[in-house]
Design goal:
This protein has 1264 residues and is an alpha+beta fold. Helix content is 45%, strand content 13%. The chain contains 41 helices and 28 strands. Strands 5, 6, 7, 8, 12 and 14 form a six-stranded mixed beta sheet that branches. A hairpin with a 5-residue loop joins strand 16 and strand 17 (277-282). Helix 26 runs parallel beside helix 29 (968-991). The chain is flat and about 145 Å long.
Length: 1264
């Protein structure tokens, strides 16, 4: 132990107490561990795991001898008193018990306050006081250890006996026995002392805890070397407290009785988990077992010097208990409470042995050589803070007991089976369990001789007495993979014969029936394996005509079916998952027995996973479907064994539908399926006798249900054709018999009997054919994708089934195709090309369209013709569901949904707008656009607007990601798309007045669809927009886009609008809002004008920088998305913003001339209305050019030429500032042409006309 500089104290006892978590998600689990340390000074201090001192308490001035804890345990019986949690502290002559609930709350509060104090630096915190009891133990010479038994209540007899011993013959007896807290101490005189404290005789004391909060975080987290327990260096010493904490006096408590052995000194006491027994060690090397309830020593072990002891409590598993006819056990039958056994663990370090003893008088049940330097750890408590509610679902987080071996560095635990506590006739159970263990070891042994395994297994299973254990042993044998089938059959038969030889009263009927059932299943397995191994001569593959007749199809329909299946095979590149690596017809006996149950002469299949179901069906039927085994014999064998036809049909269909790839490669499997289905249909109770043509047979309905749910479209279609054909044959035979009784000798061969089942088959065939065509389309893909593909486009599409399409609603088919279009990255134009491919031949126009089929990758055209053909087939099959407008609507919605998942992929939103613009019907276009705006765009646009208004310029990437959730580049594209969407919405609103709303139809086969409302139906239900409000929002979007795209600065977009205009933004576009009207505030108009002029200037600047690299025409003068002409757009915005368009156009012309792009300026000049004012502005610009040429040395002898000019012109030129124009390096000839244009548009009476004449003369006089 280390000395503490301040108090000269030593550590005398340490305890780790895990505290339960109070969180709902982890109720009953440990949250953190409190470390309790007792010192020789009498202090008890509480720390966190990291060494932060929570509280320190001086409860007694004597050294702390022992710290022990008791945690909550659920009472095993209703009459048992519920024990409270507590922490007990032993001093040389006193014991202090701290209430567990009070301690738990105080520690939590201290931990929270210390954390807050460390964060804020505030030390003035007051934790709640501790509630404790302090007893002064009297009449004992020496105490070294103790055990707190808890609260106990005496029975009336014990109450009277105790009262007589204490008070004599005339002692008064209370009506109800008092509750007492019992304490047991070990030491000397007496060797063990028993103390009883009446509840309520002493009030709990409230202490003022000393909270330790460090002033700095560095001093709060103590280092392991010197400060973990609060010991500090001289420089870190805290000032000594001026006044010691007040120590409350102890309540006297005399020893009631004890074991008075004057020569024996006790060393330690260990209480059992059920609080009824305790193990005490002494200096003589004895271990004494105490009955703490009666105060008696009931057993003693000798020769265990320096022993360490602990306890193990084992609970019986109720499922293993067998009800016995002659058993009169007080614990009842299997439905009674679980029994509990106590085992004492003794570690004798001098002998290096660990022993486990059954208590109280039981034998030694285990002994282990473990070494002489180990430590036995037995805490005796679990988690503090649990109660009767939170402990219900609590699972043990720690071991009851463990042995630490410092030599090997290992930790070992002890597990004791419950049956080891049983004695007398119960020992047979232990023997049976030993035989079961021996049998399991035999089955796991690597023995190559099956006869030897069979002989030993028979001997072992016959030696077992208990029927339940016999059944357990037989199950182990049957589930073993190393025992062959013949041995399994022999062992089961031997056990069954042995049971039959016994007297009827002694035979367990359940075990006998179990053996009989397993034996029948083993015989069935043997028969099926034999049939599968018998090879028969395969019949010749049927021709196409034979198959067509078999399926009752005309030649044209049969060839169409072949074509559909061939297309499906080509496109279905996904490999079918193989269930096992073994052959399809091989199934182990173990799995066979696990899959099936035999009861009352009927075999049922257990609930299994799909793969296991297919494996069982494959074992029965795959050889038959391949034509390699006799179908008739197999069906007869399975029917005789006890299989119902419905179960066999389910197994057959699951196999067929899971082996789609193999079936398509074996055309003759269809005829085998026809044969097998015919045989199954002729079995008893397959088709009920009351079935007629006007009712639906559950037999055929079962088959149709399997086809509807199957995701193997081709296999389902083939099985449906076979089912339809067999149904038609049976109906024909039934009808023929019926008519033959009425009309003898009539010709009924050419008749086709109608039935309800046939109509259902025809409907299903149409649905499966549609599903197959759709699945073929979804499997197709372009083979060349060179550019980066988003992870959203690589997500696999789920396989289709008729059930999925029926539950997907009216828009399910279009939605499925839209998902495929999105993943392929197709341009919207490909949908139109496929629609009109029938009428359009391969002309130059169609070739040009083909070259633009991809938005992202124009070169990815491999396999495009194939895809167009499949799309065309799909359009023909679904004329209503895949109508072009409907498909574009779903594609538009799918793209915007995917964009919303990853806003960085601006191309998805762009493609969504492209699909939207391809919608012809304005009503659908209007609804989709409005839903896209309100669902996905308006919220992000609002965030972008307020961000740009806040920073007053185009925000940087970091701000865009923080506020809008996308990069600055993606936000620019987003704003462009918003502007495009609103423009489309405006156009659709106008166009919808000129056309009628579409009528949405559904194909006849899919009328019964159920599910969510389609996107198109929702779109048609949308209200009409308020046109001026959308126009108002469109102006804002365009302004925002211009700021981002042109990187404008010092522009607040919301400052361009008054209060009415600001309030109208981001409102429901169908609502009527108060919009600006009348004359606008001049200040706002001034800001708008400055903004528009900035847009034009920035556009011309960008144009100039792009012209330095190449010559650009006016049509493509600015590389903006979708050909935006910003100067023209600025002029259009001027209309909305009440600014003169001519002013914007004049500024555009001046900017072009300022940058020296005179050829574009001349073209733009023509669009200006007030050419006189523009000419006056351009005259100034020409003067600035000439001034630079003359005054800044562009022309040789410029000053000399300047002196020759008229004085008025010379003075005017000197006043010009050439720095105001962007490009001064312009040829004189170009400037001369500009001056000529100015003179042409200036009237003669204009004030600057003469100046212009002088200027043209001066320019012409300058040599080129």
């Amino acid at each position: 132990m280390k000395q503490v500089a301040l108090f000269s104290e030593c550590v005398s006892s340490v305890l780790c107490v895990p505290l339960a978590s109070q969180k709902r998600s982890s109720t009953g689990r440990p949250d953190w561990t409190c470390i309790v340390v007792g010192f020789t000074s009498g202090y008890v201090r509480f720390y966190t795991e990291s060494g932060v001192l929570l509280l320190a308490q001086l409860l007694n001035e004597d050294p702390v001898l022992q710290l022990k804890c008791r945690t909550y345990e659920i009472p095993r019986h209703p009459g048992v008193t519920e024990q409270n949690e507590e922490l007990s502290i032993l001093y040389p002559a006193a014991i202090v018990t701290i209430d567990g609930f009070s301690l738990f709350q105080s520690l939590r509060a201290c931990r929270n306050q210390v954390a807050r104090a460390a964060a804020s630096g505030n030390e003035n915190v007051q934790p709640p006081p501790l509630a404790y009891k302090k007893w002064g133990l009297q009449d004992v010479d020496m105490i070294v250890d103790h055990a707190s038994i808890g609260i106990m209540t005496l029975c009336p007899f014990d109450q009277m006996k105790t009262a007589s011993n204490i008070g004599g013959y005339n002692a008064a007896i209370k009506n109800s026995p008092p509750a007492m807290s019992q304490y047991v101490t070990v030491g000397a005189n007496p060797f063990t002392g028993f103390f009883f404290a009446l509840e309520g005789s002493s009030q709990p004391l409230l202490s003022h805890v000393a909270l330790a909060v460090a002033s700095k975080l560095t001093s709060a987290l103590f280092n392991a070397a010197s400060g973990w327990l609060g010991w500090k260096s001289k420089h870190e010493e805290e000032p000594v407290q001026k006044q010691k904490p007040k120590v409350e006096p102890a309540t006297p408590l005399a020893v009631r009785f004890g074991l008075p052995d004057s020569r024996r000194h006790g060393e330690r006491i260990c209480l059992s988990p059920c609080n009824t027994l305790a193990a005490v060690t002494d200096e003589f090397g004895r271990v004494i077992l105490l009955d703490v309830t009666r105060g008696l020593a009931v057993r003693m072990w000798k020769g265990y010097r320096d022993a360490e002891v602990g306890w193990i409590q084992t609970v019986e598993d109720l499922q293993e208990r067998e009800t016995e006819k002659m058993d009169s056990s007080p614990f009842g039958n299997a439905q009674g409470p679980s029994r509990v056994a106590q085992f004492l663990v003794i570690y004798a370090p001098r002998r290096g042995i660990l022993e486990v003893w059954s208590t109280q008088q039981g034998p030694r049940v285990g002994a282990f050589n473990v070494g002489k330097y180990c430590r036995l750890l037995y805490p005796g408590y679990k988690i503090m803070g649990l109660n009767n509610v939170t402990s219900q679902g609590w699972q043990p987080q720690t071991y009851q007991i463990c042995l630490v071996d410092p030599v090997s560095g290992s930790v070992k635990t002890v597990h004791v089976p419950f049956h080891l506590s049983l004695s007398d006739k119960k020992s047979e159970r232990a023997k049976d369990m030993h035989l079961v263990k021996k049998l399991n070891a035999l089955l796991k042994a690597k023995t190559s001789d099956p006869d030897l395994i069979e002989a030993e297994a028979k001997e072992l299973i016959l030696d077992i007495k208990y029927p339940a254990t016999k059944k357990q042993a037989l199950e182990s044998i049957l589930t073993s993979e190393c025992v062959p089938l013949s041995s399994l059959t022999n062992i089961t038969q031997t056990l069954m014969d042995n049971l039959k030889k016994q007297e009827l009263e002694c035979v367990d009927e359940g075990l006998l029936q179990f053996c009989a059932n397993k034996l029948k299943l083993l015989h069935l397995y043997e028969l099926v394996s034999k049939l599968n191994s018998q090879s028969i001569q395969k019949a010749t593959s049927p021709s196409d005509n034979d198959l067509a007749k078999l399926l009752r199809l005309e030649e044209k329909d049969f060839h169409r079916l072949e074509t559909l299946l061939e297309n499906y095979k080509k496109e279905n590149t996904q490999t079918t998952t193989q269930l096992t690596d073994e052959k399809d017809d091989v199934l182990s006996v173990k799995m066979f027995l696990e899959y099936l149950e035999y009861e009352k002469d009927v075999i049922t299949v257990k609930n299994m996973e799909d793969g296991e179901y297919v494996a069982l069906g494959s074992f029965f039927f795959w050889k038959c479907l391949c034509g390699e085994s006799s179908t008739e014999e197999m069906c007869h064998a399975l029917e005789s064994a006890g299989f119902s036809p419905q179960t066999l049909l389910s197994l057959l269909l699951n196999l067929w539908l899971s082996k789609e790839k193999d079936i398509l490669d074996k055309p003759d499997s269809v005829s085998c399926l026809h044969t097998m289905l015919s045989l199954l249909s002729k079995m008893k109770v397959a088709i009920e006798e009351s079935w007629d043509t006007q009712s639906v047979s559950p037999w055929w309905q079962q088959m149709r249900s399997a086809c509807v749910q199957s995701q193997s479209s081709a296999a389902a279609l083939l099985s449906a054709h076979v089912g339809h054909a067999v149904t038609a044959e049976i109906i024909h035979s039934v009808t023929q018999k019926k008519f033959s009784q009425i009309i003898v000798g009539s010709d009924t061969e050419s008749w086709e009997a109608l039935s309800l089942d046939s109509e259902y088959w025809k409907l299903l065939l149409k649905q499966l054919e549609d599903c197959l065509i759709l699945q073929t389309l979804l499997h197709s893909k372009v083979t060349k994708r060179t550019k980066r593909v988003s992870s959203l486009q690589t997500e696999p599409l789920g396989r289709l089934s008729v059930k999925k399409l029926l539950e997907a609603g009216k828009g399910g088919i279009a939605d499925t195709v839209a998902k495929w279009v999105f993943r392929q990255g197709f341009s919207p134009i490909i949908l139109n090309v496929a629609q009109y491919k029938n009428t359009a031949d391969s002309t130059e126009e169609s070739v040009e369209m083909h070259n633009n089929l991809f938005l992202e990758e124009p070169e990815a055209a491999t396999g495009l013709e194939r895809i167009l053909e499949l799309l065309q087939v799909a359009y023909q099959q679904f004329p209503c569901s895949l109508e072009v407008d409907v498909l574009h609507a779903h594609c538009s919605w799918e793209c915007v949904v995917q964009w919303n998942k990853d806003p960085e992929e601006a191309c998805f939103l762009n493609r969504s707008i492209d699909h939207l613009r391809c919608i012809i019907n304005a009503h659908i276009q209007h609804g989709i656009a409005l839903m896209m705006w309100s669902t996905f765009l308006v919220k992000r646009l609002s965030s972008a607007t307020y961000l740009m208004d806040k920073v007053g310029k185009a925000p940087k990437d970091r701000l865009c990601r923080r506020d809008v959730g996308m990069s600055d580049t993606a936000m620019t594209a987003f704003l462009a798309c918003c502007s495009e969407l609103l423009q489309t919405l405006l156009e659709a609103d106008v166009s919808s007045d000129e056309m009628q709303a579409p009528v949405l139809d559904t194909e006849d086969a899919w009328v019964s669809v159920e599910g969510p409302v389609s996107i198109v139906e929702l779109a048609l239900e949308q209200k009409r927009i308020h046109y001026p409000l959308v126009e108002h929002q469109f102006v804002l979007c365009t302004v925002l886009y211009a700021i981002m795209r042109l990187s404008l600065k010092a522009v607040k977009p919301l400052s361009l609008f008054d209060s009415k205009g600001k309030n109208a933004f981001f409102k429901d576009l169908t609502s009527i809002q108060l919009l600006p009207s009348g004359d606008m505030d001049p200040d706002v108009l001034s800001i708008r004008q400055q903004f528009l002029l900035k847009v034009v200037s920035a556009a011309v600047q960008t144009l100039c920088s792009s012209q330095k690299d190449r010559e650009v025409s006016e049509e493509d003068y600015f590389p903006f998305e979708k050909g935006k002409n910003w100067p023209t757009l600025a002029a259009d915005l001027a209309q909305y913003l009440q600014i003169s368009e001519d002013l914007v156009r004049m500024h555009y012309v001046c900017e072009l001339y300022s940058y020296g792009m005179d050829h574009l300026g001349e073209e733009a000049f023509l669009q200006v209305a007030d050419k006189e004012v523009l000419a006056s502005q351009l005259l100034m610009l020409a003067g600035q050019r000439l001034a630079f040429a003359l005054l800044h040395g562009q022309i040789k002898d410029g000053m000399e030429l300047l002196t020759r000019l008229p004085p008025t012109l010379s003075t005017w030129l000197k006043a010009m500032d050439p720095q105001e124009i962007q490009n001064v390096d312009v040829p004189i000839a170009t400037t001369a042409r500009l001056v000529s244009k100015v003179i042409e548009h200036l009237p003669e009476n204009h004030g600057q006309y003469n100046l212009a004449l002088n200027l043209i003369e001066a320019v012409e006089a300058i040599p080129a």
